[in-house]
Amino acid sequence: MNPKYTVSALVPAVNTSFKCLGSECPDNCCTGWRVPIDQTSYLAYKKSVHPELQPLFETRLHPEKTPTPQHYGTIELKKQDHACSFIEGGWCKIQKHLGEDALSDTCTVYPRITVQHGDLFQQGLTLSCPDAAHRILLQDEMTEFVQAPVATREHQIHRVNDPSPAAELATRDVRFFTLRILRQAHLPLWQRMAVLGFFCEEAALLQARSDFASFAGLMARYEEMLASESLPQTLAGIASYPQLHVQVFAGILVSKLLKATTPHQGAVLGELADGIAGLTPSAAPQVFQAGMLEKYVAGTRNLERALAGKPHFMTNFLVNQMFNEAFPFNEPRIFESYIRLVSRFGSLRMLLALRCSDEKKLPTPQQLADLAQVYARLFEHDPLFQDAINQALQTAGFESMKYIAGVLRD
Questions:
Q1: How many other C-beta atoms can be found within 10 angstroms of the C-beta atom of residue 96?
Q2: What angle do CA 310, 314, 318 make, to 5 degrees?
Q3: Which residues of the chain are under the pLDDT cut of 50?
Q4: In 3D, which of 330, 346, 333, 327 has the Cα closest to residue 178?
Q5: pTM over 0.85
Q6: Side-chain half-sphere exposure of 119, counting CA atoms within 13 A
Q7: Of 159, 223, 348, 383, which residue has the fewest beta carbons closer than 10 angstroms?
Q8: What pLDDT is stored for residue 385 in this prediction?
Q9: What local confidence, expressed as pLDDT, does residue 184 receive?
């Protein structure tokens, strides 16, 4: 039907042993999400005469109002638990009776994300999968990448398109240089993010002129900057603006905390809600902002303590995001890619800080990984969330590193 094929790809070493937990997964991907079905799978399902599956295909598989090849239909969820109609005991009936090749594109590849940049393939994992979140966030450091055979499907490959072969080489170098910036362990993470932002701001000017040849000189200059002994002192002069952080992220995040669709999500968000009881966007704006600011400031101090045993937690989050999205070429303009990364980083850090606002009830790194996984599931897969964050950033005047660096500082 839609057979997978194997390619050699660059993958984080920690991902090579990933295996779906199936019925043991605490937040099964077949529950709580509408399941998009590609055209090839949809038409094959409707023709199926399998005695157990045919009645379900006829009654639970519906066409999209405006179908596309990749979103041709959808599977109706069960009302009682919001699970896919083809799930039984945590396992898929379609795979059981028709085989893995009969699964839709989405069901086959999740939680894997495959990117092709020229002749380079790479594959990562999204943190909305519980096992992937723990595997990535709780490791010592996400710095080892290996070549490994990976399976994918043609329509599930995200391609980076460059205007010329020369530009392809330059943009690939930029991609891996940005990851190198994040690995400068002698700098606090917020300073690495600030340097990354200044680099992206300058790279965006070269991109606007299609001056890809000048990327090499820009990277060389920043390489020298990273080696400078005076850099930490220079960056230390950046002021902190936690009130802007609250202004941008708090209301959008809290407004969605009550939308858990699985018991696991409810339990994780319930622990977070307990720490911010009484603070909702419906409260008086001054009360809400002041209360959230107090808890956020306290939480940022406690977050480092909570993650003392896993100091690479947030760096791993960023590296995973950048690797999966072919940063900084996942948006039309480089600096837009950086803003997108800042919004993911800032919103997650706010949730983690709020979870740590009570120093007497600090969560474990495993509990914070659970919160990051639920965050990824509820927010990162929702395009409306990114739109809301972008609008909030624009309203707050986030058009240059002058303001963004102050929000990054913890």
A1: 14
A2: 140
A3: none
A4: 327
A5: yes
A6: 2
A7: 383
A8: 76
A9: 92
